[in-house]
Every structure is written in C-alpha cells, then in structure tokens.
Amino acid sequence: MIPVKQATADFLAQHRIAVTGVSRAPKDHGANVVYKRLRERGYEVFPINPNADEVEGDRAFHDLKSVPDGVDGVVIATSPAHAEETMRECVDLGIDRVWMHRGPGAGSVSAEATRYGREHGVTVIDGGCPCMVGPTADTGHKIMHFLGVGHMPKQV
C-alpha cells in the first residue's frame, strides 16, 4: 500500500488518460466533469462510451482497446456494476493506473474491481475525484475533499 497522495500525484503525472462513462447528455454528469477538466488542463484525454461516437464535441471510443496508442491511466466513472469489467480490460491492456471516481453519491467504486486490479499489479485509487487534488483541482472540489465527500482513501 502507498499513500494516496503519492498515488494521485503519479496518476495525474500521466499524459494520456481515458475516462469511462462520459455521457452524450452531459449536464453535470461526473464523468463529463472529470473529462472536461482533464482536457482543459492539457491532458490528452479519451472519452469512453460504448454507445457514442462523439461526446463533448470530441471523438468517443467504444472501449479502451480502441484508443490509438493506448493510455497511461483510466478514470472509471461508470456504475460500480461495470467497474470490474473495465478493470479486467485495463489489466489485459497493461494499464496499471486506475482511479474509480466517487463524488457525493455511490460513485463507481467496486470492491471486486479494486481487489482484481490490485491482485494484478494495478495502482487503484478507490474513491475521490481527480478534480480534488493536484493540477486538476478547483476550490469546490478541494472543499469536498476537505469535508470527506467522495471518500478518498488514505492509502491504496
């Protein structure tokens, strides 16, 4: 186990990041918020949605294996029911950094996905949001992090 601060810094030091669960009808959908923030902050970010060819004005990919040249990390922002399937795809593709998004609600965290990823050498951040820390943070998300919204783990 490593401190979450180290894991989040390592995750956000990557350049190519996929976000699963990005919606075609965004509004304030958590995956879309994360996707747009990463894009705004200069990351090469790839929206993953099996039912969309475009989201947020960008080309979408139906799965992780469809992203040309792969990715360095994945933010899982789907329902927890889909998290283990995504984690298995990450392991199959050799992606060793995964962040399971969790905001004020149930989020995307799955104990089974966490266990599977860690058993296969993946650094799994099982809670919180990339918008809470580091170069992607904003004041609102920093306050949520301080208040414990999103259940950011202490170690991963």
Automatic annotation (TrEMBL):
<dbReference type="Pfam" id="PF13380">
    <property type="entry name" value="CoA_binding_2"/>
</dbReference>
<protein>
    <recommendedName>
        <fullName>CoA-binding domain-containing protein</fullName>
    </recommendedName>
</protein>
<dbReference type="InterPro" id="IPR003781">
    <property type="entry name" value="CoA-bd"/>
</dbReference>
<dbReference type="InterPro" id="IPR036291">
    <property type="entry name" value="NAD(P)-bd_dom_sf"/>
</dbReference>
<feature type="domain" description="CoA-binding">
    <location>
        <begin position="11"/>
        <end position="102"/>
    </location>
</feature>
